[in-house]
Amino acid sequence: MDYTSIFGYVGALLIGLVLGLIGGGGSILTVPVMVYILGLNPIVATAYSLFVVGVSSLVGTFQKHKKGLVDFKTGLAFSFPSFLAVYATRRYIVPSIPDTVFSIGSTTLTKDVAIMIFFAIIMLLASVSMIKKQKSKTLKTENQSYYKTFFQGLIIGTITGLIGAGGGFLYVPALVLWARIPMKKAVGTSLIIITINSLIGFLGDVQTLEIDWVFLLLFTAIAILGIVLGVFFSKYISSKKLKKGFGFFILIMAVYIINKELN
Description:
Layout: H1 3-22, H2 30-37, H3 42-66, H4 72-96, E1 100-104, E2 107-110, H5 111-131, H6 146-163, H7 168-177, H8 183-206, H9 213-233, H10 239-262
Antiparallel strand pairs: 1-2
């Protein structure tokens, strides 16, 4: 095993630790680790990320369910339109994106660069949601119409399919503001959505990509180990401070990706 692989698996452990400590956000590290440390193609990296995120979120779902923090009914309502969008995105949209998105003079935007730039933009949005102070609001008790939930699920599912991350930072606000679920339960409920979306989205990739199952299963197992350790250490570390600090780290990573891809 070379140093690149070692750093990659350390990255997997870090991803799991973050997921276990703050309940989300770690999955957004998966693609950068696979692309910049392990040297994988962005298309393959986003596919592998969906599997890692899906299995890791499944573990997290069981942990949250034990504490009564998963609303399965609302989660499944969001999951249906979302997994349709994720699967369609991975099965049809991503493979149909041309290798050269556009070319103007000497400037060319390739498919790989476009995906990483879009990923970096989503990372910027995620970092802002982690850094800014959350205001507590009194929520109404009535739920929104299902057609709105369906439309919102399609949008978030498409983004999830493109970037290969779980989208927890998108689902949690959606569940709080649109489905009127308390924050703690929204975090747990988002995990069941992420689990279903990610694993079904990965099925779309299985039909178009050659999967290195040995590497993928080992990477995922290490990430799960990180989750177990993260849950243990979360008893002793302030999740609010950690989340804010991680937000700044994600912000720096996003700027790094944009700078690296455009230069």
